[in-house]
C-alpha cells in the first residue's frame, strides 16, 4: 500500500473513552484479540508448534478482564493475513476515515529495519519525490517521511477501531500475564507498537516492552530499548530513547521519555535539535525537558546550547517553540559594527501574549550612542487590527562627531490601526513621528517604516456603497507629513481632504463616472530647504552641519483650498477581434488661496511665464477643460512553431485620439501635489501628462502603438514587445516652470534655466519620443527586460533601462544585472560647505561651475552557492556619471540544514549627501540563526538583502 505521510504532533498512545472497560481492552490487546463484536477473537502464529490455536474469550463474571479457553481452530471461517489493498480500497479508506474489512484481519508481518534508530524515517533530499521537494524550504537536506503502513491515512477516532496484532509466539496465563514474543506488532488504526517481547498484566492494565521498541503515532516516532504503557490512562515511558517529531523536523535522545495522560512529554537527560540524523550542527541539551504538543512549546532546565560541539550558551531555563506556532522567547540576535554607531548588538524578545495580540521588545546596544529600546505590539480583534511601536535611546545620544543631535533625546513612535465599523465603512490611522529628521538614517527601525520619504500622520474614514451596476465611495482624510530629510522641502499637508467618486453602468455600452475632491493645503512657515552650513552651536572639529530653511517665495508660498470636479461618459464596445471606446470628459479646478505677497507673485510668475501679466494675479483662480477621446484597437493571433515549441503569436495595433483645448490662466494655479509625468510606453494612452489636479493639460494628438506577444499553450508569455509614438497636431501650452518659487540661483542644485528651456522646446516638438518596451522570458527562471525612450526630434536617448534576471525555482540562486540612464540638465558643483562654486570667483557674471547630472547607474546583485552550503552574497551600485560607488555589499552565508550564518560588509552613501564631497559610511554585520529554536527573524542584516531581487529568506 502506497501512502504519503502527513506528519503532525499528536498525543502519544492516548486512549480516549471507549464503549467497554479499559481493563477488558487491555487484556484483549494482551491476547492479540481482533476487537470484533460481540465475541473478540485473537489469533497468534506460534513458531515453535506446527499447528495453529484459537482462544475463545468472553467477559469474566467478576467484571474484571476476560475468561479465555483454548479451542481447536476452525479453519473455514478463519481468514489469512490480507493481501495488500488495491488503490481503490486505499482511496475509500481515505475518504471515509474507516478501515476496510481486510484491515481488520491479522496484519501482514513487517520487520523493523535494523537502521531505524539511526535514520528515524529520514529521507535525503535527492530521494524525495518532486511533490515532497516542492514542500521543502531552501537548503533542505531532506525530510522525515513516515513509511507506508496500514492505517496511516486514518482520520477518525482510533479508540473505536479494531486492534490488529501479530507475533511469532504467544504464551497466555489466564490469571494474570500474557506474553507475545518475536516481531510483536500491535496496531490500532493509526497507532503502532513494535517490540521483540511484550508482556501485559490484566490486573494492573500495564504493558511492558522489552528489546527493540518502536512506538508510532501520526507525526511522532519513539524508539528505545524497553518501555511500559498504562493502557487505561495512556501514560507510557520508554528508556534509552530516540525520538523524532516529523512535521517540525525535530529529533533528540533521552535516558527516558514519558508520555503523560495530558499528552505532554517529559524527557530526562535529553537532547533536542533541528539537524538531520548524524548531524549535530547545533544541539540543545538539558537535564529535563517538557514538550507540549497541545500548545506547541517546550521548556528545558539546566540547558546548554552547543554549535559544532562547542558550548556557546548556558541558561538555567529556556522556553522555545516545537512547531510553527508563535511562542514567547528570544529571537535571532544581530551584530554589526559601523562608522556611525560603533558596535551594534540587538537581541529581540518575542512575547506571545494571546492568540490575537503579541509584542516584540528589542534592546540594542550601540557602543557610540548608548542603549536603544524598541517595542512593537500587534493586535487583532473581530473589528480592529493594528500595530503600535515605540523606540528611543535610554538617556541622550552620546555621539559627538558629525551629529547635530548630540546630547539630545532620540525617539520614534508608530501607530497603524484599522477599524471595520461595517462591511462598507472603515477607519484607518497611520501615524508616525520622530524626535528629529536623522533618526531613521542613524538607527533604522523594525517598525516597518521607510528610511526615505516623509512619515505619514494620517487618519481616514471610507464608506463604499452601491450595487452591481452602480458603485460609489466617500473618503474623509486628514493627512500631515513629517519630513525626514534635512536637504529637501516639506510637502503640503492635507487638512482635510474629502473625496466622492463613483461609476454607473447605465446601459450595456454606456458608463458614467464622476469625481469630486476638496482639499485644504498648508505647511510650516520654514518649509523650503536652501542649503547646509556649519552649525555654530558645535565645535567645528565635530563637523556638524545645519540645514537652512525659509518660508518660500512667490507662488510657492501659497496655501489654501482646492476643489476639483470631474465627470465623463464612455461608450465601450468590445469584441473578440478588438475594442472601440469613445469618451467625453469635463474637468474643473478652482482655488481659494492665502499667504501670498502680490508683488512677489507678479515678479515670480512674470519672470517664469512669458504670457503672465500683473493683471492676471488672483487669489481665486479656476480652470475648466473639456476633452474628447476615441480609443480603439484590434487583436490578431495565429499559431506558430519556433523550434519545437508551439506558440500563439498576437499582433495588437492600437490608436487613440485625444483633444482638450488650451485654457489660459493656469500659471496662477499653485503646485500643491502635481508634477510632470515621466514618459514611457504606457504614457501613450493617458489623458493627462501631469500627476495631480493643479494642471489640466491641453492636447490635440494621436497616439499610435502596436504590441506583439508570444504565448505558450499554458498561458506563459515567452515574449512581449510594444512600440509607439504620439503625433501632435498643435504645440502644447500648459506646463510647470521649474524656476517658479526660486528666489536665488545660489540655492539651486542644478541649472533650472536650462531645464526651463528644455521643457519649452519639448512643447513645440511635432512628435513625442518613440517609446518601446521589451520583455523576453528566456525560460521560467531567466528574463530580459528593456525600456527605451528615443527622442526622434533631437536624435538622442531620453531614458533607457535594461535588466537581466536569473531566478531559478527553489530560491537558492539569484543573479541580477541592470543599467539605467536618464537625460537631465547639468548640476552645479559644490564645495565642502555645500555652496555652489563660481567659475571665476572674481567675476560672478560667468556663473557657477557645472557638471553632468545625467542619471547613469549600474546595479549588480547576486546570491550564489559556491561550495556545499556556502553562498556568496553581493550588490554593487555604481554611479557612472560621477564615478562613485553608491553601495557595495559583500558577504557570505552558511546555510546548513539546521543553522544559518550571514556575515556582510557594507559601504554606502546616503542619497541626500553632497555629491562632490560625499560622506561614505561602512559597517560589518553578522547574523546567526539556529533553525528550530525560533519561528521569527530579526535584525538589520535582512534589510540590506532586500536589494538582491529574487533572494529568498531561508529561515526555516
Helix content: under 10%
For the record, the CATH architecture of the domain at 22-325 stands as Sandwich
Sheet with the most strands, sense and barrel status: 26 strands, antiparallel, barrel
Distance between the termini: 32 Å
List the helices and strands and how they pair.
Layout (H helix, E strand, L loop, with lengths): L21 H9 L2 E2 L6 E4 L8 E7 L6 E6 L15 H10 L19 H4 L2 E3 L5 H5 L7 E3 L18 E4 L2 E4 L4 E12 L2 E11 L4 E12 L2 E11 L5 E10 L4 E10 L5 E8 L9 E11 L4 E11 L2 E12 L7 E2 L3 E5 L3 E5 L2 E6 L2 E10 L3 E11 L3 E10 L17 E10 L4 E10 L4 H5 L11 E12 L3 E13 L10 E15 L2 E13 L5 E7 L10 E6 L8 E12 L2 E3 L2 E17 L3 H11 L13 E13 L1 E7 L2 E16 L14 E2 L13 E2 L7 E13 L5 E12 L23 H12 L6 E8 L4 E10 L4 E11 L7 E9 L4 E2 L21 E2 L3 E13 L2 E10 L4 E12 L3 E10 L12 E10 L10 H5 L11
Antiparallel strand pairs: 1-2, 2-3, 3-4, 5-6, 7-9, 8-9, 9-10, 10-11, 11-12, 12-13, 13-14, 14-15, 15-16, 16-17, 17-18, 19-22, 20-21, 20-54, 21-23, 22-23, 23-24, 24-25, 25-26, 26-27, 27-28, 28-29, 29-30, 30-31, 31-34, 32-33, 34-36, 35-36, 36-37, 37-39, 38-39, 39-42, 40-41, 42-43, 43-44, 44-45, ...
Features:
8 helices, disordered N terminus, mainly beta, elongated, 12-stranded antiparallel beta sheet
Task: Explain what this protein looks like in three dimensions.
By secondary structure, the protein is mainly beta. The protein has a domain at 22-325: Lipopolysaccharide (LPS) transport protein A like domain (lipopolysaccharide transport protein A fold, Sandwich). The protein has 8 helices and 54 strands. It has a 26-stranded antiparallel barrel. The two termini are 32 Å apart.
Amino acid at each position: 500500500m502506497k501512502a504519503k505521510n502527513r506528519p503532525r504532533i499528536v498525543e502519544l498512545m492516548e486512549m480516549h473513552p471507549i464503549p467497554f472497560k479499559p481493563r477488558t481492552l487491555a487484556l484483549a490487546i494482551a491476547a492479540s484479540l481482533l476487537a470484533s463484536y460481540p465475541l473478540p477473537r485473537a489469533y497468534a502464529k506460534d513458531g515453535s508448534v506446527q499447528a495453529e490455536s484459537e482462544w475463545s474469550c468472553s467477559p469474566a463474571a467478576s467484571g474484571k478482564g476476560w475468561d479465555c479457553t483454548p479451542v481447536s481452530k476452525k479453519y473455514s471461517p478463519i481468514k489469512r493475513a490480507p493481501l495488500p489493498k488495491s488503490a481503490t480500497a486505499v482511496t475509500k479508506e481515505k475518504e471515509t476515515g474507516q478501515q476496510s474489512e481486510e484491515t481488520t484481519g491479522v496484519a501482514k508481518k513487517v520487520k523493523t529495519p535494523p537502521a531505524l534508530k539511526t535514520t528515524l524515517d529520514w529521507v535525503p533530499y535527492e530521494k524525495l519525490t518532486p511533490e515532497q521537494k516542492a514542500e521543502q524550504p531552501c537548503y533542505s537536506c531532506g525530510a522525515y517521511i513516515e513509511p507506508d503502513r496500514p492505517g496511516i491515512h486514518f482520520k477518525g477516532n482510533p479508540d473505536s477501531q479494531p486492534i490488529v496484532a501479530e507475533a511469532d509466539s504467544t504464551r497466555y496465563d489466564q490469571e494474570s500475564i500474557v506474553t507475545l514474543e518475536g516481531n510483536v506488532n500491535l496496531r490500532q488504526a493509526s497507532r503502532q507498537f513494535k517490540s521483540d517481547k511484550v508482556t501485559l498484566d490484566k490486573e494492573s492494565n500495564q504493558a511492558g516492552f522489552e528489546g527493540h521498541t518502536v512506538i508510532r503515532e501520526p507525526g511522532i516516532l519513539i524508539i528505545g530499548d524497553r518501555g511500559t504503557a498504562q493502557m487505561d490512562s495512556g501514560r507510557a515511558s520508554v528508556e534509552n530513547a530516540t525520538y523524532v517529531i516529523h512535521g517540525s523536523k525535530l529529533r533528540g535522545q533521552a535516558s527516558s521519555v514519558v508520555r503523560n495522560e495530558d499528552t505532554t512529554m517529559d524527557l530526562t537527560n535529553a537532547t533536542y535539535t533541528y539537524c538531520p540524523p548524524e548531524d549535530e550542527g547545533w544541539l540543545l541539551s538539558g537535564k529535563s525537558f517538557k514538550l507540549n504538543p497541545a500548545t506547541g512549546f517546550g521548556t528545558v532546565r539546566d540547558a546548554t546550547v552547543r554549535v559544532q560541539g562547542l558550548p556557546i550558551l548556558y541558561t538555567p531555563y529556556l522556553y522555545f517553540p516545537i512547531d510553527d506556532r508563535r511562542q514567547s522567547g528570544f529571537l535571532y540576535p544581530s551584530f554589526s559594527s559601523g562608522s556611525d554607531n560603533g558596535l551594534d548588538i540587538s537581541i529581540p524578545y518575542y512575547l506571545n501574549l494571546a492568540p490575537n495580540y503579541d509584542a516584540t521588545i528589542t534592546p540594542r546596544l550601540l557602543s557610540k550612542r548608548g542603549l536603544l529600546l524598541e517595542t512593537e505590539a500587534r493586535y487583532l480583534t473581530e473589528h480592529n487590527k493594528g500595530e503600535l511601536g515605540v523606540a528611543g535611546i535610554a538617556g541622550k545620544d552620546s555621539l559627538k562627531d558629525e551629529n547635530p543631535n548630540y546630547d539630545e533625546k532620540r525617539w520614534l513612535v508608530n501607530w497603524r490601526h484599522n477599524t471595520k465599523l461595517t462591511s462598507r465603512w472603515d477607519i484607518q490611522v497611520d501615524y508616525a513621528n520622530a524626535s528629529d529628521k536623522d533618526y531613521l538614517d542613524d538607527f533604522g527601525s523594525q517598525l516597518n517604516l521607510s528610511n526615505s520619504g516623509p512619515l505619514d500622520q494620517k487618519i481616514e474614514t471610507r464608506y463604499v456603497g452601491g450595487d452591481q451596476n452602480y458603485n460609489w465611495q466617500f473618503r474623509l482624510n486628514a493627512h500631515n507629513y513629517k519630513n525626514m530629510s534635512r536637504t529637501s522641502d516639506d510637502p503640503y499637508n492635507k487638512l482635510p481632504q474629502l473625496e466622492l467618486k463613483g461609476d454607473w453602468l447605465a446601459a450595456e455600452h454606456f458608463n458614467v463616472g464622476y469625481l469630486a475632491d476638496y482639499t485644504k493645503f498648508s505647511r510650516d512657515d520654514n518649509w523650503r530647504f536652501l542649503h547646509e552650513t556649519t552649525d555654530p552651536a558645535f565645535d567645528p572639529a565635530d563637523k556638524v552641519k545645519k540645514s537652512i530653511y525659509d518660508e518660500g517665495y512667490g507662488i510657492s508660498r501659497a496655501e489654501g483650498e482646492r476643489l476639483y470636479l470631474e465627470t465623463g461618459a464612455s461608450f465601450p464596445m468590445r469584441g473578440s477581434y478588438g475594442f472601440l471606446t469613445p469618451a467625453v470628459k469635463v474637468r474643473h479646478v478652482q482655488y481659494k488661496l492665502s499667504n501670498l505677497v502680490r508683488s512677489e507673485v507678479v515678479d515670480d510668475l512674470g519672470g517664469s511665464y512669458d504670457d503672465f501679466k500683473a493683471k492676471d494675479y488672483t487669489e481665486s483662480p479656476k480652470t475648466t477643460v473639456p476633452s474628447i477621446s476615441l480609443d480603439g484597437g484590434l487583436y490578431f493571433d495565429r499559431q506558430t512553431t519556433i523550434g519545437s515549441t508551439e506558440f500563439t503569436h498576437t499582433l495588437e495595433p492600437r490608436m487613440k485620439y485625444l483633444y482638450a483645448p488650451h485654457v489660459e490662466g493656469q500659471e496662477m494655479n499653485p503646485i500643491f501635489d502635481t508634477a510632470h509625468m515621466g514618459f514611457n510606453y504606457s504614457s501613450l494612452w493617458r489623458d493627462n501628462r501631469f500627476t495631480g489636479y493643479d494642471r489640466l493639460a491641453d492636447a490635440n494628438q494621436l497616439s499610435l502603438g502596436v504590441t506583439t506577444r508570444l504565448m505558450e499553450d499554458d498561458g506563459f508569455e515567452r515574449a512581449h514587445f510594444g512600440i509607439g509614438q504620439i503625433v501632435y497636431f498643435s504645440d502644447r501650452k500648459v506646463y510647470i516652470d521649474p524656476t517658479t518659487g526660486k528666489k536665488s540661483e545660489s540655492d539651486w542644485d542644478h541649472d533650472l534655466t536650462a531645464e526651463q528651456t528644455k521643457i519649452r522646446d519639448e512643447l513645440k516638438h511635432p512628435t513625442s519620443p518613440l517609446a518601446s518596451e521589451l520583455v523576453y522570458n528566456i525560460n521560467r527562471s531567466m528574463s530580459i527586460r528593456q525600456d527605451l525612450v528615443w527622442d526622434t526630434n533631437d536624435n538622442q536617448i531620453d531614458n533607457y533601462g535594461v535588466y537581466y534576471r536569473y531566478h531559478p525555482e527553489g530560491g537558492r540562486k539569484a543573479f541580477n544585472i541592470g543599467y539605467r540612464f536618464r537625460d537631465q540638465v547639468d548640476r552645479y558643483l559644490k564645495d565642502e560647505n555645500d555652496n555652489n562654486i563660481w567659475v571665476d570667483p572674481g567675476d560672478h557674471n560667468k556663473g557657477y561651475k557645472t557638471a553632468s547630472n545625467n542619471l547613469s547607474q549600474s546595479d549588480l546583485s547576486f546570491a550564489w552557492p559556491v561550495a556545499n552550503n556556502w553562498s556568496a552574497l553581493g550588490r554593487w551600485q555604481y554611479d557612472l556619471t560621477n564615478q562613485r560607488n553608491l553601495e557595495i555589499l559583500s558577504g557570505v552565508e552558511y546555510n546548513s540544514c539546521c543553522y544559518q550564518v550571514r556575515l556582510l560588509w557594507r559601504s554606502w552613501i546616503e542619497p541626500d549627501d553632497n555629491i562632490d564631497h560625499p560622506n561614505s559610511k561602512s559597517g560589518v554585520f553578522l547574523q546567526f540563526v539556529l533553525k528550530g529554536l525560533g519561528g521569527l527573524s530579526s535584525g538589520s542584516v535582512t534589510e540590506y538583502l532586500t536589494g538582491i531581487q529574487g533572494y529568498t529568506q531561508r529561515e526555516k
